[in-house]
Amino acid sequence: MYDFAYHNPKTLADAVKLLAGDSEAKALAGGQTLIPTLKMRLAQPSKLVDLGGVAELKGIKLAGKVLTIGAGTTHAEVAGSADVQKSIPALAHLAGDIGDVQVRHRGTIGGSIANADPAADYPAAILALNATIKTNKREIKADDFFKGMFTTALGEGELIVSVSFPVPDKAAYVKFPQPASRFALVGVFVALTGKTARVGVTGAGPHAFRLPGMEETLSKSFTPAALDKFSIETQHMNEDMHASRTYRAHLVKILAQRAVTAAE
User: Fold this and answer.
1) Do the Cβ atoms of 76 and 105 come closer than 8 Å?
2) The domain 1-53 is classified under which CATH number: 3.30.43.10, 3.40.50.2000, 3.40.30.10, 3.40.640.10?
3) What is the 3-state secondary structure (H, E, C) of 14-78?
4) Domain formed by 170-262, architecture
5) Which pLDDT tens digit goes with each residue over 59-115?
6) What are phi and psi of 72, to 5 degrees?
7) Which of 58, 65, 123, 244 could be 208's S-S partner, Cβ–Cβ 3.0 to 4.6 Å?
8) Cβ–Cβ contacts within 10 Å for residue 32, how many?
9) Residue extents of the structural domains in the chain
10) Dihedral in degrees, nearest 10, Cα atoms 197, 255, 119, 126
């Protein structure tokens, strides 16, 4: 690793001050991406601002039909929360299937979506559940948050404080994991609220995305059979050593049908 200063603030205000005016400073959440990057010398921050001690960023609250999760809440805490399991069981399932036990007890929801890995699980849920990302400066709607590969709408010195999810009537997440990393080769999250369906896809493209055509189809008939003749375009799909564009497009459709079947 390179030399850097390490800070361990206890309040959100102190964390924001430490990051302000320093474009080379990095916020450290669970560190599941940042620490390996530092070890490989692919990043050279001037300082690390550890958010692990900031109590304001932790916790889960269910108020009526809105579930709010603090950015510093770990995947294991999301998966094990009675409030999450009761209100959006699909989100608890998603969190419980991220990586391995060690990753789930260190990684955080805020760190995951701020990093915006194209194969991360949470971004699909953010889009499908029409979540709102609250930062220290503003609120960002799900559709405005993910801008590209590892790129979000977050500005310099802007930290995610919490994520709020409207509780859907039905939802499910199904992924085809890459066997070694457990990242999603393709993951599809479907949600139905009233007569409106939303679909979030991860792993298939440069960043998580929605499928408006599939959403329209499922809004008319929220059944697996409704997607039998649905066609997925391949030109914007990822292609690598693990899967071709055609195979990923095929997976999107199949996993969407399985998610609709599993939705509760």
Assistant:
1) yes
2) 3.30.43.10
3) HHHHHHCCCCCCEEECCCCCHHHHHHCCCCCCCEEEECCCCHHHCCEEEECCEEEEECCCEHHHH
4) 2-Layer Sandwich (3.30)
5) 999 999 999 999 999 999 999 999 999 999 999 999 999 999 999 999 999 999 999
6) -90, 10
7) 123
8) 20
9) 1-53, 170-262
10) 20
